[in-house]
TrEMBL record:
CDD domains: vWA_Matrilin. A major component of the extracellular matrix of non-articular cartilage. Binds to type 2 collagens and forms long concatenated protein networks as part of the extracellular matrix. Required for the network-like organization and bundling of collagen fibrils surrounding chondrocytes in the zones of maturation and hypertrophy. Required for mechanotransduction and adaption to mechanical loading in cartilage chondrocytes, resulting in an increase in expression of the extracellular matrix components ACAN and COL2A1. Acts as a moderator of angiogenesis in response to injury. Pfam families: FXa_inhibition (PF14670), Matrilin_ccoil (PF10393), VWA (PF00092). The lineage of its organism: Eukaryota, Metazoa, Chordata, Craniata, Vertebrata. This is Matrilin-1. It comes from Scophthalmus maximus. InterPro entries: ECM_Assembly_Org, EGF, EGF-like_Ca-bd_dom, Matrilin_CC_sf, Matrilin_CC_trimer, VWF_A, vWFA_dom_sf. GO terms for molecular function: calcium ion binding. Residues 461-488 form a coiled coil. Keywords: Coiled coil, Disulfide bond, EGF-like domain, Glycoprotein, Repeat, Secreted, Signal. Residues 1-19 form the signal peptide. PANTHER family: CARTILAGE MATRIX PROTEIN (PTHR24020:SF16), COLLAGEN ALPHA (PTHR24020). Its main location: secreted.
């Protein structure tokens, strides 16, 4: 029998009577398959005079070790630190550091304030300031957790009950850690329910590190795709505590949300990425808008089928309208006609990054599990690097079409386009010839070159039904003959 890994045993025996461990999560952590859910996390740390300098150093070590177990980043976990005593100091904002290394370095530089213990004031500051959008907190969403971890060793000199209730009502999950001669009733007034999971006590700062694993586990979400605990036919995409299925390029996700088909006239999210630089010129920009509407005319636009979004770029990027705003061709085409010409530069790389980070994001109307198509139009060489964004778009499963006119660089177009390049990249020297490109550009999720067996299956089914009918007739005929023979024998 294979011996149990020591880390797994450690996780199962995790940190005292209040720890509640999910075995699957522990196994995932042991196997290195654990991710942390997107979280806005703020540490609220007591540095009053009762906390000795050496003890405060141990608190900072605890903070650094918890941070080490997180997925830190602007789209993952953001971390802030509030230091308090008689006054409150915002040491680290949620928007300040985007890497673990930067965060941990900032934590090591925090100095104790060494005065009183105004815990209520600190919670109020966290609610009003640290968790504000101005300090880097994200808009309230079911996909983003708001968490505060309070570390204190004394009795507060102000009221904590009411302000903690307000913070919890605002959607902030509060963990309260007490050290030494802390007032336990105060911890319970601050913490979220269930209290067994949100209130912790340690005898001294020298052993606060033993809580590290608890908080790493608290933020851990097993990667169900990595553990194989899913039934996706082709592609599994992890999300916090869950997963969604997707399909390879040229296939469409079926209604069951799991299986894929190469032959389906299914829903599609289409985003146009349009170069509005000064080299295009106003009269040609009008031709570009007509070209967009030609392609829209070929789509099956509806609430359940094709959704269209439009982004214009030059030296900056502007979303004209997101996916799903207009679900009929008339409204879509009217919105395209109203698009104003931006002029200025050609930052195609920046526009591709916007497509990756925003246009195909559910927050901008994209639908999970739906095929994604990007159509990039440009008339010149990009003034920034496109390679990484172009590569990532295709790696993410987006079907990318690249259309160039005039001074567009064909090597850049080919770098943007999906494979096979010949079907996904188009070039013409003259804007007036764009109509021909619109005719050639076919947004077919079921690619022509894929061996689609749908018609064959229908024919096969018909043959089987015909054979069964013929067999049924033969059986009926045999039954009649047997009945006649039985009558003769009688």
């Amino acid at each position: 029998m294979t011996p149990t890994p020591p880390l797994f045993l450690l996780l199962l025996g995790l940190i005292g009577a209040h720890a509640s461990i999910d075995v699957r999560t522990a196994a995932a952590m042991a196997a290195g398959l654990c991710k942390t859910r997107p979280t806005d996390l703020v540490f609220i740390v007591d540095s009053s005079r009762s906390v000795r300098p050496s003890e405060f150093e141990q608190v900072k070590v605890f903070l650094a070790k918890v941070i080490e177990g997180l997925d830190v980043g602007p789209n993952a976990t953001r971390v802030g630190v509030v230091n308090y005593a008689s006054r409150v100091k915002n040491e680290v904002s949620l928007k300040t550091h985007r890497t673990k290394a930067g965060l941990i370095k900032a934590v090591t530089k925090i100095e104790p304030l060494s005065t009183g213990t105004m815990t209520g004031l600190a919670i109020q500051f966290a609610l009003n300031v640290a968790f504000s959008e101005g300090e880097g907190a994200r808009v309230k969403s079911p996909d983003i957790s708001k968490v505060a971890i309070i570390v204190t060793d004394g009795r507060p000199q102000d009221n904590v009950k009411d302000i903690a209730l307000r913070a919890r009502d605002a959607g902030i999950e509060i963990f309260a850690i007490g050290v030494g001669r802390v007032d336990m009733s105060t911890l319970k007034q601050m913490a979220s329910d269930p209290l067994d999971d949100h209130v912790d006590y340690v005898e001294s700062y020298s052993v606060i590190e033993k809580l590290t694993k608890k908080f790493q586990e608290a933020f851990c979400v097993s990667d169900l795709c990595a553990t194989g605990d899913h039934d996706c036919e082709q592609v599994c995409i992890s999300s916090p505590g869950s997963f969604k299925c997707a399909c390879k390029d040229g296939f469409t996700l079926m209604d069951d949300g799991r299986s894929c088909s190469a032959c389906s006239n299914a829903a599609t999210d289409v985003v146009f990425l349009i170069d509005g630089s000064k080299s295009v010129r106003p009269e040609n920009f009008e031709l570009v808008k007509k070209w967009i509407n030609q392609i829209i005319d070929k789509l099956d636009v509806s609430d359940s089928k094709a959704h269209v979004g439009l982004v214009q770029y030059s030296s900056s990027v502007k979303q004209e309208f997101p996916l799903g705003r207009y679900n009929n061709k008339k409204d879509l085409k009217d919105a395209v006609k109203k698009m104003a010409y931006m002029e200025r530069g050609t930052m195609t790389g920046q526009a591709l990054r916007y497509l990756l980070d925003n246009s195909f994001n559910p927050g901008h109307g994209a639908r999970p599990g739906v095929a994604k198509v990007g159509i990039v139009f440009t008339d010149g060489r990009s003034q920034d690097y496109i390679g990484d964004a172009a590569k990532k778009a295709k790696e993410n499963g987006f079907k990318m079409y690249a259309v160039g006119v005039g001074n567009a660089v064909e090597d850049e177009l080919k770098e943007i386009a999906s494979e096979p390049t010949a079907d996904h990249y188009f070039y013409t020297a003259d804007f007036k010839a764009m109509t021909q490109i619109a005719k050639k550009l076919q947004i077919n999720i079921c690619q022509d070159e894929d061996p689609c067996e749908c018609d064959s299956l229908v024919k096969f089914q018909k043959k089987v039904e015909d054979a069964l009918q013929a067999l049924t007739k033969k059986l009926e005929s045999m039954s009649k003959r047997i009945a006649l023979l039985e009558n003769k024998i009688v």
